[in-house]
Amino acid sequence: MSLVMGVDSSTQSCKVVIVDTSTGHLVRSGRASHPDGTEVDPSTWWEALQAAIADAGGMDDVEAWSIAGQQHGMVALDAQGRIIRPALLWNDTRSADAAADLIDEVGAMRFAERTGVVPVASFTAAKLRWLADHEPGDAGRVAAVALPHDWLTWRLRGFGPENPALEELITDRSDASGTAYWGEGGYDLDILSQALRREAAAVALPRVLSPDEYVTDADGRRVAPGAGDNAGAALGVGAHSGDAVVSIGTSGTVFAVTDRPVRDATGTVAGFADAAGGWLPLIATLNAARVLDAAADLLGVGHDELSALALTASPGAGGLVMQPWFEGERTPNRPDATATLFGMTLASTTRANLARAAIEGVLCGLAEGLAAIRAQGVETHRILLIGGGSQSAAVRTIAAQVFDLPVVVPEPREYVAQGAAVQAAWVLSGSRPGWETGSTAPTGGESNPVILEQYRRRLP
Fold first, then answer.
1. What is the pTM of this model?
2. Residue 409: burial class (beta carbons within 10 Å; 0-12, 13-18, 19+)
3. Looking at the annotation, which residues are catalytic?
4. What value, to the nearest 5°, has the Cα angle with vertex 420 and ends 431 and 89?
5. What is the pLDDT of residues 276-302, one digit of tens each?
6. 180, 107 in Cβ contact below 8 A?
7. CA-to-CA distance for 146 and 206, rounded, in angstroms?
């Protein structure tokens, strides 16, 4: 049996899967937790990666490996390969003003044309501008900028402060496209210099590998390029052109697979690249599964009971509408927003309606994102619903009522890590594997327009 290893270094934890290359079946797995927060010392990710690999039984029998991870996070290194400061994660919104400044200086249309995206607080360019403005001493020491999966790949290959070969940093198209200083022509050093407020030509940036390109580790194993988490999930779930993936995890994302780039000068849709040579137009919301956590805590129930409560309420939750921007929002770009509950009356304010309104609010935000992607001319024919939130019966049922496309729920897997394993198998064999992914039939029920209509009436 030939084995490969795929890793998902997410916001909350590190997951490792070791799979059979001929079938994609899971052989063994491991996991380790990450610390909370939007600012994290990357060394904790390295410790978690080593712990998760050990929990999975080690990698001595693995022939190739790949790491996917959370996008956008800023890992700044000095000339000796040392971490300059804790990484700012994608969900750290302190760089919102920096993003706005960059748009004013460069122009939204120019950003979209050159990089496929318009900066928001999440993107690496905005975080580098924040660093230059608020910690100029640290910004002046930056000799390399990596994203979380880039840095972990570098470390697992045997590099770091003890072997600081910055030129050995690698990445892939999908993660590079989330920096706001990379486009089809490669890195845009003018924009990077604008972000850092200094000449950036000497700053080491990870080499962008093609999907079937590889390097090796210290033991001679093939190492695939890695991927941003959403691109990894698209590979893992087997998404192809015409598919839209809705993922409900710490963040909520909607992305579609297409063969042409998308350039949205409004910044609503990020024109990311995918990990297979195509494109992955995407919207992301900061508020997803944690909204359901908050609703369950407020009602004093577990997630199963929250689901059961929600399913006893009628579509539209009796007119109760939750705008679930608990931590600000990325799409729409409202980093300082707060959550709001509309339509409270003596009749509508019930535990069941509140449970349903929380789920409807999350799904309506994602449905708005899908509408924005389709408005860019991207064709979608079905929805693949993944992430921890998809395991809720109420989420599955209500999704079929909110979206106007068939909703398919793939069997539960660690799809980001699985996508990294697809990459590893790809560089090992020379072709993308066609592993089967089990799934349910499209969920029952018809779209109910009242849910989305009343949500839209409450949008500012």
1. 0.89
2. buried
3. 229
4. 145
5. 999 999 999 999 999 999 999 999 999
6. no
7. 7
